[in-house]
Amino acid sequence: MLEGAVDSILEAVGDTPLVRLRRVVGDVDAEIYAKCEYLNPAGSMKDRMALHLVDEAERRGELRSGGTIVEATSGNTGAALAMIAAVRGYRCVFVMPDKMSDEKIASLRAFGARVLVCPTAVEPDDPRSYYSVARRVCDETPGAFYANQYHNQDNPGGHYRSTGPELWAQTGGGFDALVAGLGTGGTVTGVGRFLREKKPDVALIGVDPVGSLYYDYFKNGRLTTPFTYKVEGIGEDFIPSTIDLSLLDDVVRVDDRESFAMTRELVRREGLYVGGSSGAAVAGALKYARARGGGVRVVVILPDGASKYLSKIFNDDWMREHGLLGPGATLGTVADLIRFRVDNPVIAARAGDSVREVVALLKEHRVSQVPVLDGTRLLGAISEVDLLRYIVSEEESLDSPVGPLVEADFASASPATPLAEVQALLNEVRVVLVQVDGALVAVITKIDLIDYLARH
Ligand code: PMP
Strand 114-118 relative to strand 349-350: parallel, antiparallel, unpaired? Predict the structure, then answer.
């Protein structure tokens, strides 16, 4: 064996560079360091966790010689597992949602894996969803091992043993905050657990795309109605058991437009050949750093590379077609609607307000529903219909607090959310609530949208 050679590509997982960002940081008073996980051999930070996950499955006897690895994956975990399977002689079957790029699917097939594509726009428990299909394939394949990255604790475990200690050794712990996009949450949870043991006051910040559940669940404890977005690999429409949100100090929200603009900047101005969730993470890191100030030192994880997104994020036609480049969507955005309206600031009720008081509030402001806050926590909205139903029920009391009557039947948007998206959402939920930095800035119902569109 030649000195300096490794036995297989699996020994080349990890040891990724940490690079200081310069030009994209602009005037933000912070030092931002990028952990280049996209340089792992199968193309992402998932290499680390997949290796640990397979090692543990072998050790427990769940994966045996000649076995088949099955996974529901958006791509990077698949590539990592496929690489490991190639080296160790396993077969692989991957099930993925249809919004994933063709390049991701092709790269899995290149490793010799079987790929099944399922519809994105169905509930996780629908038999056509990629979660359900993966389970079925597993049940029907002898010697199958379901990697199950959303619930397998070896996912955060891999980052706890690999990414965390490596970052610590690389920096001596001299940074104030770690910023990472939230998918399964394995990265932030595993790295975060390790860092907290070493440095209890390190800030752990998650980044979540608008449309995903994490932001509102973290801020308000409410599960809102999720909607689709274009950035791949981050955000969820359910809460996986691999994420420990209690570790996090904050969740920062980013939209597709700013995520992709930053992705392009990272490639063009920093020479970092990264994908969309890296742009999202850096955009989130800069938001966090700007708010915190004081020369804060931030480490941000760059999960995967640009090559899988050449036909999307790096293709001007695709970007324009999806309203992500040039002038905004034709109908405008939530910000346009807010500017057009005169009813600022938002009228809201408090959870402790009595039914009587809320009825008076609706009457006074001539509105049919109001958002309800518990301190700064957004509980949802309450409408005339809810109050009427309550008042005619047996146990009504006009002096009871409205808090328990509020359902989380809302979707959560940002000022950059296209109004076309809001229109679609209002078919599913009664109200779209708009938040900026955790503060409620607007309440949009059907009539608001009609009113705005009728005048434009
Ligand atoms: N970015 C990309 C491109 C990913 O594939 C993933 C994994 N879903 C993430 C970010 C998020 O990482 P994690 O699942 O560890 O939260």
Answer: unpaired
Instruction: Tell me how far apart the alpha carbons of residues 89 and 83 are, in angstroms, rounded to a whole number.
Output: 10
Q: Which residues of 230-246 are buried (b: 16+ CB within 10 A; e: fewer)?
A: bbbbbbbbeebebbebe
In the chain, what are the domains?
9-41+156-321 (3.40.50.1100), 46-146 (3.40.50.1100), 334-455 (3.10.580.10)
CB 273 within 8 A of CB 305: yes
Report the C-alpha gap between 419 and 332 in whole angstroms: 6
Q: How far is CA 118 from CA 1, 108, 240, in A?
A: 45, 16, 20
Q: Apex CA 94: angle with CA 93 and CA 100, to 5°?
A: 155
Higher pLDDT, 254 or 344: 254
**Residue 233 Cβ < 6 Å to ligand 1:** yes
Distance 182 CA to ligand 1 centre (A): 6
Gap between the Cα atoms of 167 and 261, Å rounded? 27
Of residues 303 and 449, more confidence is placed in 303
Distances in Å between the Cα of 379 and the Cα atoms of 333, 335, 400, 403 are 24, 23, 17, 8
Longest dimension (CA), the chain: 83
Confidence (pLDDT) at 104 = 79
**413/165 Cα distance (integer angstroms):** 37
- Check: CB of residue 384 under 8 Å from CB of residue 362: yes
Q: Which are the catalytic amino acids?
A: 46
pLDDT for 352 equals 94
CA of 234 to the centre of ligand 1 (A): 5
When pLDDT is averaged across residues 231-260 and rounded to a whole number, the result is 96
Identity of the amino acid at 318: W
Provide φ and ψ at 19, rounded to 5°.
Answer: -120, 130
Q: How confident is the model at residue 343, as a pLDDT?
A: 59
Q: Is the CB of 277 under 6 A from ligand 1?
A: yes
Question: In which band, very low, low, confident or very high, does the pLDDT at 342 lie, cut at 50, 70 and 90?
Answer: low
Instruction: Tell me phi and psi for residue 251, to 5 degrees.
Output: -120, 125
Q: Which of 38, 45, 100 is the pocket-test mutation for ligand 1 (most atoms within 8 Å of CB)?
A: 45
How far, in Å, CA of 318 to CA of 230, rounded?
11
- In short, whether 181's Cβ falls inside 6 Å of ligand 1 is yes
**pLDDT (tens digit, 9 = 90+) per residue, 379-414?**
999 988 888 888 888 677 889 999 988 987 889 999
Pocket mutation for ligand 1, best pick of 245, 277, 312, 313 (most atoms within 8 Å of C-beta):
277
